[in-house]
Amino acid sequence: MTNANLAGIIESRCQDRAALPGLHGEHGRSWTFDQIDLLAGGVAQALRAEGIGAGDRVAFYLTNGPETVFFLFGAWKLGAVPVTVSSLYNASELAESVAKTHPRLLLVDGRRSDVVAEFRAGSDLPVRSITDAVPGVEPLAWKNETRVRAVEVAADSEACILFTGGTTGRPKAVSVTHGGTRGSLERLARVSTGTDKQGTAPPDAKPNLIALPLFHSGGQHSLLFAYFVGRAAVVWERFGIDRLADLMERFRFDNFFFLPTMVFDIVHAERHLPFAGVKSVLVAGQAISWQIRRGFEERYNVPILVNYGSTEAGHIAGWNGKDMKAGLWKPGSAGKVYPGVDLEIRDDDGNVLPPGSEGEIVVRSELTKGYVDDAEASAELVRDGWVHTGDMGYIDEDEVLWLAGRKRDMIKCGGFQVWPEEIEDELREHPLVHDVRVLGFPDDRLGEIPVALVVREHDDSVCDDRLSAAIVEFARDRLAHFKTPRRIQFVPALERSETGKISRVSVPAPDGGGST
Length: 516
Description:
GMP Synthetase, Chain A, domain 3, 516 residues, ten-stranded mixed sheet, five-stranded parallel sheet
């Protein structure tokens, strides 16, 4: 039986490029692939001394940084299951995450000592610190470099617990498997490099910046993909324009994987970033607006490629540089369905729909075992091996996937289906709209009406009432009447989740101001 253990990825790198740098921190320190494996071995040895073994869950409440890499691979070497909790969580959110996932041990560092102290006051879960700086918490002796071989695990063994972004509800704890994660990496490698084999990057390849945090599925997949194809990884604490510029000068990256919100910040930054030598930027996590995409590409002359997927289903569709050169790219689409992805479009009754018909995107996947904290939601998510994404879209005659929106975000206005993303894309074209989120609000006559929450550009010459009317007229010129927002509400900012997605839940109720 082939060992599906994800720790085998770093062990493979030790076989073909052990002495090459494999990990860089943002403050100048680096580690070779061999040192990563040895430090992961030290972690495995220390966790084993705490009684952790195969199948045991270990919660990570760690500031994003290189140390998290050692702990991920160290846990996997034992067959243990990291539960990657956001380091931004407060004590109650940490407690909720632990209650959902039932880990045997919690690992912390010295950055949130107040949160850890509050958590410990209400929990009897054993806690160990990876530093010496947490009062009252025993340090874990993990820095003894040791060679530990990864235990054998089955393909369907639980590899990690990840939390969804929570843009349309409370975050759910998603269980992903070793084999499913490897399969997703192989599909992306096949599309990106033309092979599903590990270690295809040349020894002098530029490192990859892991822009997303490692408690996030995008961050973990970015790290694993870099190592899967043989590239080094640069891990930082968090995204920031000045931090990004400094690292770009230092490493001369040739590609990036960003969230749309990161691209938004780059486009609006006063500082011009050194994108010379960057071949492409891959964007995933949520839809990117045409206005932001065009602004980035015009400013830096670097193409944006899109990737569609999810924590639960893995990599599903996207475009790559070869597609662009071959003229296959279709503007506005999610991308061509990746080879090896079994995808169907289904109606509400589960019937498979033909090309061109809109329905829910359903994917056969072995990546997830479901939600560990919600049996009912798990039963809805995975049915007979098919993951129901909750995304609506259609496939055209060229096997290109087009997205319409989230099934539960759809607004039903007077019997018509209205997708918020379509309205948002149009409103962002208005010169005085800085950002926007469209939501459905109850209406006695129409069931729901679209309401736009707008962050306006600063312009003292136009008052709110005049701008509100102008935005509605702008929308009417570009959209069907039933899609036009019935009300504009100006807000100072749009609340975002910890992963940068704009929340559709935490929004103010319409106050009647700026209505049409």
